[in-house]
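Our preliminary data section would be incomplete without showing what the modeling component actually yields. Below, a chain of 290 amino acids is followed by its predicted structure, encoded as tokens that our downstream tools consume directly.
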Amino acid sequence: MNRIHWHLISLGTGALELGAISLLWYTFNARDLVLDLFELVGGTRMHTRYFQAGGLAEDIPPGFFPECWKFCEVMPKAVDEYEALLTQQGIWLERTKGLGLLTADDAIALGQSGPVLRASGVDWDLRRDEPYLAYDHVDFEVPVYAGGDVYDRYRVRVDEMRQSVRIVEQCLRRLERMEGEPWIADDRKVVLPPRHELHTSMESLIHHFKIVTEGYRVPEGEVYVTIESPRGEFGCYVVSEGGPKPWRVKFRAPSFVALEATATCMRDALVADLIAIVGSLDTVMGEVDR
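Predicted structure:
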């Protein structure tokens, strides 16, 4: 759902910058549906603090399932509307076809990932090739196009929204069968104890105090963990000396890497095409500046 949410922002704002004003309202309307579901589960519209070490802050509320099924029914029709507005529209084709070319070799050399890489003909997706979480338990296709232009990057994201709905439907079926199962680990050295225990258990109170004030210790060593975020490979490299605080932390931000491809994509292009090209690379400056 986060992938759908981000591709809706990318599509709506990218089309707006090329003059397709009406699409922004369509995509942001669907985006609000996603954020409403996030708020229903985690209490905030961006899932702040819902995911924790060891699991989740709380179980998914029962009312989430019917609302999410409604979203899965509406979203494919919405994507059809976006394509009806853009995919064969003459001006859109003129502003996207054959522009911002990035070959497969250049994409690999520049360290690209996600839709930018797959739109250049490289069939690579961490969810399928190095699965994590539950991605090895769901069926989905990885959209790949060989053109390497602005148009193919648009097509990849549109197809990914359709595939994401397919993944959400499979996850919903599994989650509905898992009612009553634990949503967080019961390891008091790492996971905060339930708040109701703090009034009656001294041990729980001590564990809560220690985790909040000191954190928890992890084994000495180094690790790199990566996921296939909507914009590409998002990784975190951590070095530990065995204490509660890391010795070094480095995030691999896909927006920063995608921004580096701008100069290559701008070869033989007009200044006016820069708007479409940068929009198709889907960078977030906050992520770049970090």
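The beta strands are 51-52, 55-56, 221-229, 232-240, 248-252. The chain is about 50% helix and 10% strand. Preliminary results of this kind motivate Aim 1 of the renewal.
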